[in-house]
Structure formats: C-alpha cells, structure tokens
Amino acid sequence: MAVPNAVNIEDAINGYMGGFTFILLFALYLRGVDTRIALGALAGFLLLNWPKAKHFMGDAGSFGCGFFIAEGILRGGGIEHPLMTLAFTAPISMDVAMGLIRRKRLGMSFFTADRATFPHHLLARFGGSHVKATLVLWLISSGFVVLYPFPTALLIIFLGYAFALVFLNANSLFPQQSAGT
C-alpha cells in the first residue's frame, strides 16, 4: 500500500504521475515484464492530462497507477533486486518521507494536505509553468530508472535529490529562532 499512497500524495501536477508511471512501466517492459495494456492506457490518458488538462487522474487514477507500479516492480524482480525498487520509487518515496518529517517538525497532522511537495516547489521556481515542472520531474524520474544498473551514479543522483529536498524544505525542517528567545 505504500506505493499507491505515495503516488496519490505526489499527484499534484497535471501529467506528472501519469508520466512517472509510464516511465517506470516502460522500463519494466524493457526488463521483460508485460506492461503493454497499462502503457497504452497511460499514453491515451496523458494526451488528455497534459497541462491544460481536459481530464484529471483523481484518487482512483493515482491509486491505480500506484498499483500498476507496485505490481510491475514485483513481477519485474523487485524482491530479488531491492535496489531496483528503491531506484524506481525514489522520487516519490523520498518526497513523501520529507513531507512526513516536515509535518512532524511543524506539529501538523500527517493527514493535512500541504503545497510544500517537490512538484509544488518546482511550480514556484518555474513561475507556475506546469509544462516545465512536469518535464523536469519526468527527467528526474528517468534519471533514477536509467542509472539503476550503475550503483555509484545512482547514489550520486539519490544524494543530489535528497539534498534538493532538504534545501527546499529548510525553513520547516530547521526553523529559525528569534533573537529574543
């Protein structure tokens, strides 16, 4: 249930989670897992969900994508190759973990929605451009998938992404003390 919930939490920008799922399922297809039906469905959906979207994923779609990812990873050898599971789910699992830490540090409920996820930070950095933010998120996701066979390179992108998450959440992770306190 962790992957479907993480996909649901991260589904913040039109096209991001559909594209993320497509990237992972295509990588699994290249590893010999038959994901053609899901890939076809996602390709059709992405045409309508691309920024200035006409259709939206919603909870049912994001949980469905999360299920496709988890099931594909299990069929693709994720239990025997835990590094593959980590690499394929790192962009969403790391951001969800950062969100839980952020909420704990701020005394918020874990069930409170916020706009401090990595996709929202990218939207702010790109002046609200969903297209640019989505493309950057897809590029990051592709980087994790492509670098999976190269553990050293994967470690570098993993640490870089972790640093970016900490940097973007620094205000809530390390609140400044006022001079009079």
From TrEMBL:
The keyword Transferase applies. Its main location: membrane. The chain crosses the membrane at residues 12-30, 146-168. InterPro entries: Glycosyl_transferase_4 (IPR000715). It is a multi-pass membrane protein. It comes from the Bacteria. It is found in: Cell membrane. Keywords: Cell membrane, Membrane, Transferase, Transmembrane, Transmembrane helix. PANTHER family: PHOSPHO-N-ACETYLMURAMOYL-PENTAPEPTIDE-TRANSFERASE, UNDECAPRENYL-PHOSPHATE ALPHA-N-ACETYLGLUCOSAMINYL 1-PHOSPHATE TRANSFERASE. This is Phospho-N-acetylmuramoyl-pentapeptide-transferase.
